[in-house]
Amino acid sequence: MNASHYYRALAGIIIREGLRFLHQRQRFMGALVRPLIWLFIFAAGFRSVLGVSIIPPYETYILYEVYIAPGLVAMIQLFNGMQSSLSMVYDREMGSMRVLLVSPLPRWYLLTCRLIASTFISILQAYVFLLVAWFWEVQLPPIGYITALPAMFISGFMLGAIGLMLSSIIRQLENFAGVMNFVIFPMFFASSALYPLWKIRDSSISLFNISSYNPFTHAVELIRFSLYGQLNLYSLVYVSAVAILFLGIAVYGYDPGRGFMARKQDT
Amino acid sequence: MGRGDKVVEPEPNSAPDALSVDGVSFSFPGRLALDNVSISVPSARFCVLLGVNGAGKTTFFSLATRLYNCRSGAIRIFDDDIRKQPSHALSRIGVVFQQPTLDLDLSINQNLYYFAALQGLGPQDARRRVADELDRNGLAGRAKDKVRHLSGGQRRRVELARALLHRPSFLLLDEPTVGLDVHSRQSILEHVRDLCLKEGVSVLWSTHLIDEVDESDLLFVLHAGRVLFSGSVPDVLEKTGATTVQEAFVALTGGERKQ
After folding, report:
1. Count of the separate structural domains present in chain A
2. Which of A4, A103, A104, B148 is most buried, judged by most C-beta within 10 A?
3. What is the reported pTM?
């Protein structure tokens, strides 16, 4: 075993995830249609209701569509992270997780590779979304499309790590609907994706507190600033720390000795 | 190192056991799945792990492939302790799991290249070995077909080809013939026996189908998490006074059930 083995395994896992994604056109359409509905319909309807004042990184008044675009990019990554965790649960039952885990590489590395692969998929989806949004007057500074790449990598990695952690805990597939209700929706709504935090504070201090600690808020803000070529350092540190923490829990969960894996197997 | 690099000599005393399991117990919440199991798979032998459904065969495989860690006892693959040198130990085994593990929407080639990458094979090696293994398994013309379009027997052969890509010296197969028709069963069994005989691959084959046991095999009878017998087929017949393996199995496990 040497460095090329690590590299080849990573490449192999990324290629496999990419091929699987390409074969699942419905998943791709779903990933694209969901944020576009928010952009085309929700944002249009709320444009006049919600006035967004000038807050960093914005320097002028902006359309509501422009405000929620970063949140929708993060939503794409959130769904992708959870879907990838769904496929992990599915994989484990179908057995292809076994194939991955019996390969002669450290387990933390294999799980990290899976995460990186699913993050790339989410970035691909996000760029297609940004392209469509460009025609819908959500036009960002050209540099933003480049500086957003590392930001989306880190946020996608964190959201995937949350999914991975959940997949090591969820007992059965059926419970995933619960994950949608108890993880995806609360994370999305209690965040700065749809409205700025100061607006939330005006109506509820406790919701404001929850939202400011919500890792999803920081994923959104990291992406929002990066789309304007700026760095939100606090969000970067926050997102990175959460990513490492959840990856750690997931590796623990998939560890053959200590983890939940053996405990939850019934047969 | 490929297995073709060295001449295989039956030297039972010098070669380390492919698998040695010593005093392993394992329990799920509220249920003891394996109770103080000890078996050894000698190098270059075909061994059958025989047991009814629920006997603990899959749990045993999960431990031997390090999907679960054994908390008591020790498992060694050749000379590697699976807890201390997991990567080296895992690099020497090929596994065919009981559940289907192929990506149905990907082609045979794509499935196999993915596995080759996990094993660290370079692109050229991977291409050559994938072609070789498909050839040997009678799937040469179908490399670009989606797995979804293959029959059950063909899918199993793909999984077997995959398990052999990195030229393992020890092959573990967990009920590989489940759900297959007689011809597919026969052809897979013969292929694996050939590997053992001609190339010196050690084999642990688990099954609940007694007719898959051959007289020359080493036999482990697993029942309710315990090893009731380990030894040669003549030995089990002598021990139980039976004339067939079937009778011997019933004699061993039937008595156990009444307790």
Report:
1. 1
2. A103
3. 0.86
